[in-house]
Write a structure and sequence with these properties.
By secondary structure, this protein is mostly helical. It has 4 helices and no strands. The radius of gyration is 21 Å and the shape is elongated.
Amino acid sequence: MQNACMPKALTIRDVPDETAAELASRAAKSGRSLQEYVRAQLVSLADRPDAETWAARVRARKAATGGSVSAEQILAQLDAERADRTG
């Protein structure tokens, strides 16, 4: 029986040399292997919604709140959150 939680192996073909070199450079700068670096990037990418999902969430939130939020409301909320953090 297969374990549903087993990590999957991916093969990516036809990666341009310049792209592979840039990824390898970034991996080295971060002290990780290329595999570790690319894996972390893929996990991070998968954790974020794609553009279509994000836009749908924004539209739903806007519909639920009845419109827009003023700059003053945004700044007041930011100030309140900063005050909460600084105690």
